[in-house]
Amino acid sequence: MRKFLLLITSVIAISGCTQFPGVYKLDIPQGNILSQEAVNQLKPGMSPRQVQFIMGTPIIQDTFNENRWDYIYTMKAANQTPTLSRVTIIFTDGSLSNISGDLHPE
After folding, report:
1. According to the model, what pLDDT value does residue 20 have?
2. Where are the chain's structural domains?
């Protein structure tokens, strides 16, 4: 019984440290870093290889539609709401035909 009480007390004490303001929290970036400069380089008619050279390997390649590539970037900074950026690229007949999402070519 004494060990059980000690265990419960320890768990409660440790869980209280998650909201402690002095705890350092890492920024967690995930996915492909998306930049407006990279998206501006994309032009209709580019091959998938050219697009991959500029944008990198897509995070998601649709299994049922190999002509759709999705690039997703999330950033969870400490004590802030996560940010999400998406770019979807569509190929038609082996060439870039459509770009949609949060960033558009200028």
Report:
1. 62
2. 22-101
Asked if residue 105 lies in contact with residue 40, where contact means CB atoms within 8 angstroms, the answer is yes
- How many Cα atoms are found within 13 Å in the side-chain-facing hemisphere of 80? 12
- pLDDT tens digits, one per residue of 45-76: 999 999 999 999 998 888 898 899 999 999 99
Q: Is 55 helix (H, G, I), strand (E, B) or coil?
A: helix
Tell me the β-bridge partners of 64. Answer: none
pLDDT one-digit tens code per residue, 76-106? 987 788 899 999 999 999 999 999 998 888 8
Joined together, the tokens standing for residue 11 give: 């768990």
What's the distance, CA 21 to chain centroid? 27
Q: Residue 103: exposed, middle, or buried by beta-carbon count in 10 A (0-12, 13-18, 19+)?
A: buried
pTM of the model: 0.71
Classify domain 22-101 at the CATH topology level: Beta-lactamase Inhibitory Protein; Chain:B, domain 1 (3.30.1450)
Helical (H) or strand (E) element with 18:
none
